[in-house]
Amino acid sequence: MPLLLRRGAGAVVVFLLCSALAEAAPATTANDPSPPPPPPVAVAAPLGRQRVAVVHVGFDAGVVEAARELFGQRLVEGLTAAQFDVVAAGEVATTLAARNPSLPDCRQPSCYPAVAEALGVGYLVTSQVAVASKTYDITLELVNGRTGNVIGTNREHCDICGVEEAAEKMGLAASALRARLEALTKTPARFIVRSRPPGAAATLDGQRAGVTPLDRELPGGPHKLQLAAPGYDPLERTFIAVSGVDETLDLDLVRLPTKFPYRAAGWTSLVIGAALIVGGIWALSLDGKEIACAPSDRDIFGHCPNVRDSRVGGAILMGAGVATATLGGFWLYLGSGSREATAPRSVALIAGGAF
């Protein structure tokens, strides 16, 4: 017992000495030459799980039915191993047939967006397996579900292979599509914006971008585009850029309605036209009548020697009155709002023909 007490007392003394030394050590100051610890390295966020659907697996005639099923299984396993959420083959067929009977036979980029929308996926996968003398060629394509364009292709070649070995190659090709997709997300999208009429001022995400046609590289994600041109209604569009995808926007600007006062001009023209017609009728009524003269200038029958010649003037007034009244009626028709969009061209034609 005394021995144990002496050992315990020694341990206490050692602990107290260590504590004293720690308190006497100088604190680290700003002038301490020792380097600070390195900052943590920023790691890029992972791409995350993407939902895909296998919409077509093509085989040459030399691939037997049992091998085809094995290839399909390895394809799904490879996509799943690459962190893809794969839509089951049965769900693909049932959903597409219920949505549109023609969708299960889709093999063209033009119908791929409809297939992706029906399945609720972002990407589609198609494959083709060819075999000759036990040599397999496997091709996989990753399709962007929004545009229908192929954004990644992977090929595997297997010389003198058995079915199991070739199927493993299919799984490896499927897993490699993930790397293709991740590399693609780091590539900017290219957008070409064209407008009718051209030369519209473009604003992209609140910044002036020039005039159309416009060719820009954009990061993936949503963007806001605004176009403005004199005499046209401003246009605003929101679109989503897909990394690594080239797209073109063709936009039509709507011409602003004209500010010409059709109703006021129409009524004015009607009044003027009516006045001209009345004046023409009055001038025609005076044609051939004697012009008043002094009694000494009359002949033996009491007639003055000069008569009025107003037939030509009256006809001119009548014609101008009819044309002006017609133009006024047309302007009133345009003022009703039924054909304001074609007003400037129509008014020019009518006015030119009338006068």
Give the topology.
Elements: H1 2-24, E1 50-59, H2 65-81, E2 84-87, H3 89-99, H4 112-119, E3 123-132, E4 135-144, E5 150-158, H5 163-185, E6 189-196, E7 201-204, E8 207-211, E9 214-218, E10 221-228, E11 235-241, E12 246-252, H6 262-286, H7 311-335, H8 343-354
Parallel strand pairs: 1-2, 1-3, 6-12
Antiparallel strand pairs: 3-4, 4-5, 6-9, 7-8, 7-10, 10-11
Helix pairs in contact: 2-5, 6-7, 7-8
Description:
- A hairpin with a 2-residue loop joins strand 3 (123-132) and strand 4 (135-144).
- This protein is rod-shaped.
- The protein starts with a helix and ends with a helix.
- Helix 2 runs parallel beside helix 5 (163-185), helix 6 runs antiparallel to helix 7 (311-335) and helix 7 (311-335) runs antiparallel to helix 8.
- The strands form 3 sheets. Strands 2-1-3-4-5 form a 5-stranded mixed beta sheet.
- With 355 residues, the protein is α/β, with parallel strands linked by helices.
- The longest helix is centred in the last third of the chain and has 25 residues, at 262-286.
- Helix content is 41%, strand content 25%.
